[in-house]
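Memo subject: From amino acid sequence to discrete backbone structure tokens
Action wanted: Derive the backbone structure tokens from the amino acid sequence.
How to read it: Take the token row as a discrete description of the fold.
Attached in line: The record itself begins immediately under this heading.
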Amino acid sequence: MKLFTLFNLLLIVCLVGCLGSQQTTQTLETETASTETETSNALAVLELSTPKTTYSAQEAIPLELTIQNGKFDLLVPFSSVSTQSAFKLLAVTDSNGEVVKMKTRVPLANPLKTLYKDGKSVRCIQGFDMKAGATQTVSLENLQTHYQLQPGSYTVKVVIELEVYRESMEDQHPEVIELQREIQKYQNSTNPQFTPEAKKEAISYTQDQIDFIKEKHKEALQNIYLPLKSLRGKASLESNTISLTIQ
């Protein structure tokens, strides 16, 4: 009898230990998911809106996306917060919960550009310095351009995979880019007749030309660019969901 009682006691201790471990694991998972959500929400908040909730089948359906930055200054792609590319992950769902297939994709508009820094070429995309607390608004002229919506009820939301970068570079005039290439050629030259003194003089002269062009065009060169290698990470931001009725 005593042996049986001891066995039961050990069994209860084991069960309590297992349950406690399971609860701890679930708590950690919940806290991790909550932390990730709070981080995304702190980074920026998306607010999707449209002027009204009911449209005719032939009527344009404009959408407006407001991006409210959080408490950090962010270096992000220009296209993600200032062009229609912000709507590239637009999602439309019908009354049956089925995702409506996009017929015409939202155009992407952030081509690569090669700039030069310290005599080396750097591949970049156009960037945007989004200050803490700042608000950006992006518009889509007509939802029906991208979706063929039949009469019925729909829900719409937007997801942005927002890339964040560590550093930016100033825009460069085309002549500056060409002159930077010249400096790179001078630095990489293995011509024995091109003496170190001549190389130094050529680089100095070219750099003076670059400085002159930068000063002359400084007001026109307001854009910034983000080196692809400086990508810090990305956050998935999801807007509110709005409801639409097509008559």
Observations:
- The chain has four helices and 13 strands.
- Residues 222 and 246 are 43 Å apart (CA to CA).
- The chain has a mean pLDDT of 82.
